[in-house]
């Protein structure tokens, strides 16, 4: 959960890696245990989400925070003559 709430991209990548490692480790622990089917299902769902997040973090960001774009004053906009 902390990985999803992190705003610093470098720290977020590290937290995502740690979350993935923890989930994989728990899946391995439950692999041969009896009665952990529902937890395994949830862990696999979480792992899928973490891996999708990793893919997004690996892509160059084109998103900007709202309000950070520089606006030109109306007087500088080209006129349609």
Radius of gyration: 21 Å
Distance between the termini: 55 Å
Strand composition percent: under 5%
Average of pLDDT: 75
Can you describe what's shown?
- The chain is mainly alpha-helical and 81 residues long.
- It has one domain.
- It is 59% helix and 0% strand.
- The protein contains 3 helices and no strands.
- It has helices at residues 2-5, 9-30, 37-58.
- It is elongated, with a radius of gyration of 21 Å.
- Residues 68-75 have low confidence and may be disordered.
Quick overview of this protein structure:
The chain has helices at residues 2-5, 9-30, 37-58. With 81 residues, it is an all-alpha fold.
Defining traits:
3 helices, 81 residues, mainly alpha, single chain, elongated, 59% helix
Task: List the topology elements.
Blueprint: H1 2-5, H2 9-30, H3 37-58
